[in-house]
Write a structure and sequence with these properties.
By secondary structure, the protein is an all-alpha fold. 66% of the residues lie in helices and 0% in strands. This is Tetratricopeptide repeat protein.
Length: 190
Amino acid sequence: MGYEKLDTDELLRLSLNAMNNGQDGDALVLLKTLVEREPSHPMGRYLLAAQHAQLGLMDKAEEGFRLVVAVAPDFFMARFQLGQLLLVQGNATESRGLLEPMTSRPDALGRYAAALVAAGQDDAGGAVAELRAGLALPQELPALASDMQRLLATLEGLGGQAQTAEAVAHVAPPAPIFLTGYGQVSTHDD
């Protein structure tokens, strides 16, 4: 199929459809076509990075999320996922630098960011408290809430027997944390 007649919105919608239907190859082609046309398109770059992560291509995912955060620093889901990826990779310091600015947000994403910051500092109690607070708020992203519920259950079950940052890696391994359902967020704080 030739994509030259499709505009950016059409490419974006078709790529989301492909992602949601497990058509990874089609999603990649559509997203690459989109970002070739508009290299600084935040949502296109974000979804391409998420698709790379879903496929286990973590270096490409990290590069893509970094590009999104560079061109759209207020694209909070990209910032969150880059912070989470870095934490999973063992880079708690850089992860904290990305996530701390989000911790003042009054929504669930802000609490989840605070939980990951605490986890990166091996503060299980702080991580559990922040996860509970986040889960008590309205949930815009069921996929993210599900990941955070699993992380909470794991941290509560550890009883201090393992490092908190390591628990994040076990509960949220790199590929599954980037569910396409996360792609349905706005690029800016509302």
